[in-house]
Amino acid sequence: MSETKEKKSWFGKLRDGLKRSSSAISSGITDIFTKRKLDDDVIEELEELLISGDLGVTTAARIAANIAKTRYDKEIAPEEIRAALADEVAAILDPVAIPFTLDESRKPHVALIVGVNGSGKTTTIGKFAKQYRAAGKKVVLAAGDTFRAAAVEQLQVWGQRTGCDVVTTKVGGDAAGLAYSAMEKAKADGADLLLIDTAGRLQNKSDLMAELEKVLRVIKKLDPDAPHSCLLVLDATTGQNALNQVEIFGKVCNVTGLVMTKLDGTARGGVLVAIADRFGLPVHAIGVGEGEDDLQPFAARDFARALSGVGSL
Question: InterPro entries, per this entry (predicted)?
Fold first, then answer.
């Protein structure tokens, strides 16, 4: 019973977090489909609505075409369209809804956390640390965003809160050297997981990418297979810019999975569908709030229903 309650409360948070996205899509569907047959004009309006919801041109066109296949020239209730939309979105998201898992054969499993400044990297690291500490794992944190004193301090707070050691260096220090020291410590301590924070100054793209490449080279000196995961943290409020970020970071550090934050209070949650459709990368977790438990494994059908404005669980 408690699991059901917990699931309902998470779905409630998700639905509340996606309210701006879903209300725009849901009310748009009502406007388009009230007492009208599904003809070419209506399909085009539905497509435009989905594009405005940040689902992307290609994805929106295919979803609208799929919905029209068996319903063309029929009068359809808005509720049926919302349900059909939820099914189409879930079909895109189901294959990428893959929880982050620790490779127990690695001591430590090294996870490099990347993303632009302000995307929520440091908070995501803290929340992952809390979850794995609660599961009895030994976790080490590396404050690799050496250019921002606030990021280092924030990670130290998470370290105190979760009982994790935090490896730091001076502000402006060498991020690659810091990553090397953190790996040495994590290995010596027999840690299960090493989470490495990184800088995200995308306006100096070439400098940032050169720094990331250096971090990767140094890590591989201690373990040729590391990092074992490279998680890209995306801020949902950036909308279509998130697609560019997946592309840019993917070229440098072989992104293995995604975490999407700040889905609460944004009307741009649909971009996750466009990202899943275009890149097919695993979506490990999503965040719908500032609370420590507001980062949860990504559930495709829950997300699809919340985004489409379909009922509750």
Answer: AAA+_ATPase, P-loop_NTPase, Signal_recog_particl_SRP54_hlx, SR_rcpt_FtsY, SRP/SRP_N, SRP54_GTPase_dom, SRP54_N_sf
- Does the annotation flag 118 for ligand binding? yes
Q: pLDDT tens digit string along 96-122?
A: 999 999 999 999 999 999 999 889 999
Query: Do 187 and 152 form a contact (C-beta atoms < 8 A)?
Result: no
What SS3 class is residue 299? coil
* 201 annotated among ligand-binding-site residues: yes
The response to whether 116 counts as a known ligand-binding position is yes
pLDDT value of residue 266:
62
Position 79 in a domain: yes
Contact 140, 172 (CB under 8 A): no
CATH code for the domain of 45? 1.20.120.140
Indicate if the pLDDT at residue 312 is higher than 80: no
Q: What is the CATH number of the domain that holds 241?
A: 3.40.50.300
- Note whether residue 311 is domain-resident: no
Judge whether 200 is annotated as a binding position.
yes
Domain that holds residue 135: 109-298
